[in-house]
Amino acid sequence: MISYARQPQEDQSEASLPPVEEHIAPAPRVSVQAFCETVETAAAVQSAGEDRRLGKAHLKIQMGGMAAAVEAYRSAPTPNVIVLESDGRNDLLGGLDHLATVCDAGTRVVVIGRINDVTLYRELVRRGVSDYVLAPVGAIDVVRSICNLFSAPEAKAVGRIIAVVGAKGGVGASTISHNVAWAIARDLAMDAVVADLDLAFGTAGLDYNQDPPQGIADAVFSPDRVDTAFIDRLLSKCTDHLSLLAAPATLDRVYDFGADAFDSVFDTLRSTMPCIVLDVPHQWSGWTKRALIGADDILIVAAPDLANLRNTKNLFDLLKAARPNDRPPLYCLNQVGVPKRPEIAAAEFAKAIESQPVVSIPFEPQIFGSAANNGQMIAEISANHKSIEMFLQIAQRLTGRSETKKQKSSLLSPLIDKLRGK
Question: For residues 419 and 413, what is the distance between their CA atoms, to the nearest angstrom?
Fold first, then answer.
């Protein structure tokens, strides 16, 4: 029997694109070698290798299928994952038996085939094959199969990263991100953490009325110390479900980072938190671009003027090209209706972007200013304010979750409510 790490998958009847809300956790740093028989499959695997979720994997593609794989590993060690394309049943099973004689323990095998038969599938599982994918395959099918090898089926789904960025400075992206995170934690009952990435001028600590002695800077400047326990010590608890990884907001050092500076922080947060909201500053550098492209979902906050329209369009185009297997970014309009300010109508904005805004949040300086100065969320200032419902809509769209169900009311509820009101 082949000594692959066994993770049997359900029989697959078709290769199709995933639903919009499907969450595929990124693969770790692994080596993947694919042996293809058709140029179509090779192209799909190549495209999968460019997906953000396989960004840490080292992928190599060869033609020749099973025969090439057996020959290649006679004198070379096997990688973490082998992807094999095969057309026939007998050749496939016989080839796997030959491969078992040269395959290292712990290697996982994904087979791409054209026979949709449960008996064959059971034979593959019996031989230790990790997954069987029915051809023809698309890039997302390959991504899903490889990534799922490293996600335990029984484990709690964790690690959805949401990045919020302003199309222009001063549009209120931080305020939106903090209030949306509050809605995710309070209304959707998800454990969430806000990571303030604006180390010099971040406002998350002020908005949540927190002044922790440590924060994200301690992790970024000590990457060798980053692990779950270290990150837990840096988190500041805001509510039962919401934590903060605060920015120092000091100018005693220069915050110049390489493109991968935050990778270890994000990886650790993914392993412990169901939802991570990144408050991304309005700047364009290697690490901000990497954070946006690597996020599971993205929200762009824009004001209704020409510069914001141009910048939103540019961000949309770049992110859609860099993330072909993900849904497009979402965007919302903020500070709509500033007195005496000419504005671009939401319909015109949507026409240029070719996408509708999630919500359009009106300009209300009184309540937003009070919340900022008091270190509170809008929901804490005014429980029935209309923007609260908008934050919840954004939270639901970004997480793919509905509001937690409330207890069903009985026929006597109206009468009881009236008695309570007296």
Answer: 10
Q: Residue 394: name the closest of 338, 332, 335 by CA.
A: 332
**Structure-block tokens of residue 166:** 């302003």
Give the burial string for 187-199 (b: 16+ CB within 10 Å, else e).
bbebebbbbbbbb
pLDDT tens string 236-281: 999 989 999 999 999 999 999 999 999 999 999 988 888 999 999 9
> Among positive and negative, which fits the CA dihedral 70, 76, 82, 85?
negative
Distance of CA 257 to the CA centre of its chain: 22
Is the C-alpha dihedral spanning 297, 287, 232, 379 positive or negative?
A: negative
First-to-last C-alpha distance (Å) of the chain: 75
359, exposed or middle or buried, with CB in 10 Å at 0-12, 13-18, 19+?
Answer: buried
Find all residues with CB under 8 Å of 407, minimum gap 6, and list them: none
Stated length of the chain: 422
- What burial class does residue 381 get, using C-beta atoms within 10 Å of its C-beta: 0-12 exposed, 13-18 middle, 19+ buried? middle
Residue 341 backbone phi and psi in degrees, to 5? -100, 125
CB distance 148 to 24 below 8 Å = yes
> Which regions in the chain score pLDDT beneath 70?
1-21, 89-90, 152-158, 402-422
Query: Do the Cβ atoms of 87 and 79 come closer than 8 Å?
Result: no
Other Cβ atoms within 10 Å of 350 Cβ, number: 14
CB atoms within 10 A of CB 271: 13
Measured torsion, CA atoms of residues 335, 337, 341, 346, in degrees rounded to the nearest 10:
80
SS3 assignment, position 81: strand
Question: Which two three-digit tokens encode residue 347?
Answer: 């319909």
Residue 320 dihedral angles phi and psi, to the nearest 5°: -65, -40
d(CA 239, CA 191): 10
